[in-house]
């Protein structure tokens, strides 16, 4: 079987965009496979989906959610839409959300890479990712001897790029800076 060796969009099969959530306490992962782009809207929708499918079951009495993220991309510290979308999630769920970002250039320390994604790509090894369902199924079939279990879901929504946030929207957010690094 002929397969592509890079992650370029296939004109016939479409695009896949995995967004990963790793629960350090439960040693559990969740992968949302999107079909458009790695947008902020998609990132927060993935967190919302994790909460519905796994988070509420593991933490039924939770009042807070702590997120650690890389500093760039769709969930970057300086991305206004990230803050707006997290505020929407907080309003919907009643959770106090704490977002912590790794400093630029330190994403290798993010546990999602060496406790979750490395196992997912090992599970993919030698298997052609011929369609979106293959990506979802292979990601969701990831398990390790140390107890890691991964669930996966396909998100077929179209997530828009280029959503602008107004100054008024930013001022309306209920954001409190951390005492250590308030920025």
Please provide a written account of the structure.
- The chain is an alpha/beta fold and 183 residues long.
- It has a single domain (17-171), classed as Nucleotidyltransferase, domain 5, CATH 3.30.420.
- 33% of the residues lie in helices and 18% in strands.
- Strands 1-2-5 form a three-stranded mixed sheet, sandwiched between helices. A two-stranded parallel ribbon has the order 3-4.
- Helix 1 runs parallel beside helix 2 (80-93) and helix 3 crosses helix 4.
- The chain is globular.
- The model has no long low-confidence stretch (mean pLDDT 90).
Beta content: 15-25%
Largest sheet: 3 strands, mixed
- How far apart the termini lie comes to 51 Å
Low-pLDDT sequence parts: none
- CATH class value: Alpha Beta
Q: Count up the helices.
A: 5
CATH topology: Nucleotidyltransferase, domain 5
Number of strands: 5
Q: What is the mean pLDDT?
A: 90
Rg over alpha carbons: 17 Å
- The helix/strand order is EEHEHEHHEH
Query: Helix content range of the residues, please?
Result: 25-40%
What structural class should be given to the helix and strand makeup? Answer: alpha/beta
Placed side by side, the strands forming the largest sheet appear as 1-2-5
Q: What global shape is seen?
A: globular
């Amino acid at each position: 079987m002929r397969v592509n060796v890079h992650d370029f969009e296939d004109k016939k099969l479409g695009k896949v965009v995995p967004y990963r959530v790793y629960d350090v306490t439960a040693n559990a992962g969740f992968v949302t496979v999107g079909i458009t782009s790695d947008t902020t809207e998609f990132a927060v929708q993935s967190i919302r989906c994790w909460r519905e499918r796994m988070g509420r079951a593991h933490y039924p009495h939770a009042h807070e959610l702590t997120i650690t993220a890389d500093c760039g991309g769709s969930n970057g510290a300086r991305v206004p839409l990230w803050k707006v979308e997290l505020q929407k999630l907080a309003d919907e769920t009643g959770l106090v959300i704490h977002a912590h970002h790794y400093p630029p250039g330190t994403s290798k320390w993010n546990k999602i890479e060496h406790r979750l994604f490395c196992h997912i790509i090992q599970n993919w090894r030698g298997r052609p990712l011929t369609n979106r369902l293959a990506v979802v199924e292979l990601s969701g079939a990831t398990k390790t001897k140390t107890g890691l279990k991964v669930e996966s879901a396909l998100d077929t929504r179209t997530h828009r790029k280029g959503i602008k946030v107004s100054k008024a929207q930013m001022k309306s957010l209920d954001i409190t800076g951390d005492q250590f690094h308030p920025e």
